[in-house]
Specification:
13-stranded mixed sheet, four-stranded antiparallel sheet, 6 helices
């Protein structure tokens, strides 16, 4: 990395910290939408780590993880550089929405275009102004809708660097996850940058356990990369999940889970049941395999085919 980092015309030297406002677009009222990017640099050159949250605007646990990281000055490296973007999707954050006003998902819009949709424009600026500067990244997410994810890191396990980063984070679960087309993680890999995804909790809800796990993991990654000397101790040997499957509703009705998020389950174990509102029927749900409940639908009103429990297969 050069001695001077340049983002959106702002120059940040070794030993400096600056908040850069990256202009994306304007609201219909002509109000400018600027994305704050906090760049912290150590006195000595070294790896550059990106920590990004709020790519989906309603996923606020990652926003809180980075807020705490910044408030406690954990983001300030002794060596190398840390780039923090607590809220990438400003529009979605303001509107309690995963997507942008154009209805598109930023994380399905990379590499983006300066002449495309709003989501494509945000993706373009991320690729143009941030990605070329970094070596590694952590992209913080939660479950979508009313689905909660037990704290987990997702990465492609067949890549040794991804594996090492995931183990350094030290989450309860490491889940093998193929690239989503046009996602940030996919485009980063094409540019020889490694980004892992942390998932914890559900959208529009704070999950203190997931936030604590994410904050500790981010600090462990910083220590692993040599950016800082201190981090929380390793807590456990992560459970590796190479394959997973959703248990889906075979009928519409009211879903009652009988196992908690994170629980270990065995094949054919009862996971819950579906009823109608009138007491006419009750359909049992069974686990398709031995494994762990790594995702859970918290919405009791469900339709035929809805994803109910995400089972990490052993």
């Amino acid at each position: 990395m050069p001695k001077i980092i340049n983002i959106a015309g702002q120059k940040i030297k070794l030993g400096e910290e600056k908040t850069v406002l990256l202009n994306i677009a304007r609201l219909p009222t002509r109000t400018s939408i600027d994305t704050p990017i906090i760049v912290s640099r150590g006195e000595k050159d070294g790896p550059v780590l990106l920590m990004l949250a709020g790519l989906h605007g309603d996923e606020i646990n990652g926003v809180e993880i980075l807020r705490q990281l910044l408030a406690k000055n954990y983001n300030r490296p002794e060596v190398g550089s840390v780039i923090c973007v607590p809220v990438m999707n400003i529009y979605g954050f303001l509107n309690y929405s995963r997507d942008l006003p154009d209805g598109k998902d930023i994380n399905r819009s990379f590499p983006g275009s300066p002449h495309g949709s709003l989501a494509s424009l945000v993706a373009y600026h991320t690729m143009k102004d941030i990605l070329p500067l970094i070596d590694y990244g952590i992209d913080f997410h939660t479950g979508g809708g009313q689905r909660a994810n037990f704290p987990q890191v997702r990465c492609k396990m067949d890549d040794a660097v991804n594996q090492a980063l995931a183990h350094a984070f030290n989450p309860p679960f490491i889940v093998n996850s193929n690239f989503r087309n046009k996602s940030l993680r996919q485009l980063a890999m094409r540019n020889n940058k490694r980004i892992i995804v942390y998932e914890g909790g559900e959208s529009q809800r704070f999950d203190n356990d997931a936030i604590s796990e994410g904050l500790a993991g981010a600090r462990r990654i910083m220590k692993y990369l040599g950016l800082s000397k201190t981090a929380p101790d390793i807590r456990r040997e992560p459970i590796l999940i190479r394959k997973s499957a959703w248990v889906r509703a075979h009928t519409a009705g009211i879903f009652h889970s009988t196992v908690p998020l994170g629980a270990m389950v065995t094949k054919n174990q009862k996971l819950g049941f579906i009823t109608d509102p009138y007491g006419d029927f009750e359909v049992r749900l069974k686990s398709p395999s031995d494994g762990y409940v790594i995702g859970l639908n918290n919405n009791p009103i469900i339709n035929h085919g809805d994803a109910l429990l995400h089972i990490g297969v052993l």
